[in-house]
Structure prediction request, 609 residues.
Amino acid sequence: MPDQFLFATEVFINGLMAGVLYALVALGFVLIYKASGIFNYAQGVMALFAAMTLVGIMNGQVPFSHIINAVFGTEIHHFGWHVPAFLAIILTVGVMVGFAWLVQRLVMRHLVGQEPIILFMATIGLAYFLEGVSDLMWGSEIKKLDVGLPQGGSFWIEDMTAGLGSDNFYGFFIDNLDMVATVVAALLVVGLVLFSQYTKQGRAMRAVADDHQAALSVGISLNFIWVLVWSVAGFVALVAGIMWGTKSGVQFSLSLIALKALPVLMLGGFTSIPGAIVGGLIIGVGEKMFEFWIGPLVGGATENWFAYVLALLFLVFRPQGLFGEKIIERV
Amino acid sequence: MLDAAKTSDVQTETLLEVNNIEVIYNHVILVLKGVSLNVPKGGITALLGGNGAGKTTTLKAISNLLRSERGEVTKGSVKYRGQDVHEEDPAALVRQGVIQVMEGRHCFEHLTVEENLLTGAYTRADGKANIAADLEMVYNYFPRLKERRKSQAGYTSGGEQQMVAMGRALMSRPETVLLDEPSMGLAPQLVEQIFEIVKSINEQEGVTFLLAEQNTNMALKYAHYGYILESGRIVMDGPAAELRENPDVKEFYLGMSDEGRKSFRDVRSYRRRKRWLS
Prediction:
């Protein structure tokens, strides 16, 4: 097989995997948008917060230690224990549920029936608040996250594929972490779809998304459903936080991955869970392939803008995205 | 008609008691200015009146859906089975057996017809078998829904959506249904059909109805008792048969008059003289 083709295949596969990571972030947006019509600007920061909390718990860090030490003149930073990853993840899920409850209780409940733009601005506020809180709670230095996921290129795949090309082809380089992320994302999506299609609470979630008033009238508690949705979004943020955090360290820039999720959403549609996945894959593959073929012609660095230009095209020609729900309107 | 005679002679238990309530939207707009009404168990009570008279607001004040629209009950009380319910949230009321079918259907458009019906059973905890049995019961009353069970509610016709909304309410096993304007935007023949179904649900399942309607003629044909609302006040009430014969009701709501047509100016002054209770 020609090497050029093999390289392209490698780029394609890596693009798919990068796309999965984008999709993970986009999923959180879709969940909240579907259920409450809120575009949650804080989703990226939630991923950061979740990852920081996970690292903090694993290392036995004392939350708010800087404030505590400043007020009481003490010098405690660590509890002196290490929590195993699995337990720490469960505890972090608990924290995210608590966070969801607080958001609902302190912010969203008071804004019921307000314009979407007001809710959106509330989430912007929430994003900056949460950013500050996570720094205060766990400190602002870059942290290493290791929950035991395999990292680095897969030698097995490299060896298997090395023989395909000529002598200067060394086999596919595929990151183990990306493969884990792909499996996890697939499981997550299957789980979410099953949950929303076949369970009572999932059905109630979709009902709330369609018509708040009618949902209220049949006795669905909006408060409960919204806490549920924000919790699930928090969980998705945690998964995204783990994957991205393991890849590039837990640091402030983690919250910026939210920006990469925007084009994904415009492609896939704000209301579709499969759309978020497919959108993520298209963006991931698209930007890698574009860089591979067109990049050299225009001097490279196309990855930075490709996704956004693609999103713009979609906004012009298909505003609801590939899988977005058609707005059903009877005349 | 026999249905009207039934409740006027026999004294039945009063389920719902609305006592002189006043409702204000957005802290400034006074919509109800003291509305009182009683809903007897097992009856169909009609709440009549024109556009903006306050029918929907009255129903929402009872079911407590007002709060999500920035409205509140500022005076008076709403009692269900003698208990004050005006502080409870809609979910608690549904559990107690009071459910509202909102004006304009409000189906969950992206859910299928069957899923819509199942959301009605959200508050129930009596097991899947009972819910499945009630689903069959609803399909019995609305055979059309069974044919369309797999289609998205948003793509069904107006009449079918009204059936979905009513069937969804029935799925909660209600004692009282607050039915808001079931005739809205439907063909006369369909309206008749819907009212026939209301009547048979009332008779066979023993469900009590409080029915808000603009279609006075139709409502009085099926209801046992009627209240007439005008700009936020009850101006008249009585057994449906009596209201049907009342000359004022005939003139203003049924469009019939013994004295021939009147000019609009006469009507207005006549109306002013004839304000009840205000």
Chain B has a mean pLDDT of 87.
